[in-house]
Design goal:
Length: 382
Amino acid sequence: MIILAPDSFKDALSARDAAQAMASGIRRVQPEATLLCCPMGDGGEGTLDAIIAATGIERRITTVVDALGRPIDAAWGWNEAEQTAIVELAEAAGLQQIAPDERDARHTTTEGVGLLIKAALDAGARHLVLTLGGSATNDAGSGMMRALGLELLDDAGTPLPPGGSALARLARVNTDHLDPRLEKLTVQAAVDVNNPLCGPQGASAVFGPQKGADADTVAELDKALAHFAEQLGPFNGPDHASTEGAGAAGGMGFAALAFLNATLVPGIELVMAQVNFDEALSDASLVITGEGRVDGQSLSGKTPIGIARRARDAGVPVVVLAGSLGEGWTAIHDEGVTATWALSDRPMALEEALARCAELLADRSEAVWRLWQQAARGQNRQ
């Protein structure tokens, strides 16, 4: 059996569509091939879909707001038997929902995520899986917590406006109106990075630029988030600012730790547990995975590396197919990856690569399968 376990290819294919494209390429050569399509996620966009596809839990839709405060219908997962909700940040505050010319990391908010958590509490949730990744935000989760009753006030006692930039003016934190149901809620937060909240490797410096922040804005936001952490001293905020993963999703990891008493777990580890990936590996002879970009930072918790490490332990080879290969990508071969291919068949603009992603993924999967078959024939002749 061959496991097809890709993450999404950002701006091109969902994880499910990517798995289907892989399968179509292989079936050009061998229609009867035994394939297991297992869409994956590491906490970013598509993680909810991967869990629902594997477990069959209920998909619910709630109208909340996006990162700019506009109404949006967002999905979340509900397991009635276990009273467990799955909330994906990217459904409410995802970068993919914000046009490039609208992205402004100073003002985007995670309020919609808080509203999804509130809907889960209304449904009777006792356990929450919160997946953090793919955000358009840099507000350290302050918007999420305000939707759940936290008050953030300036020195005049006026509520702060949304966004990370406003946190620089925070003078007083009031937790009196926090939703009391949070006290009985157990939370796992799935992260795909290990960055702290602030500093050169923090949320603002590393991820702010892709959310519309120039160098001056990065400095402004980093200072504002550090001030937010300092003001949360009574709630052990500063103790969490340097925790690995606190900088995930523009600082949402920090809020999950400081206010929700969350346990941070690598997103890919959580998803593999949800989909019983180890059981599938026991019958597999090859795994093909991939995502939009693979580089040195992939080692911090991205889907292909999590899969490769687990497959290595099981003695199963892994092939990675990537939309692009960035600096440091060869290091992934030290983590259990057998071979890696980029998708492009010739130099092309990004727009063309995105439009042809399914076609290119099918072509590369066909090539991998042909090589795999030939290697198997060679072994049989020995």
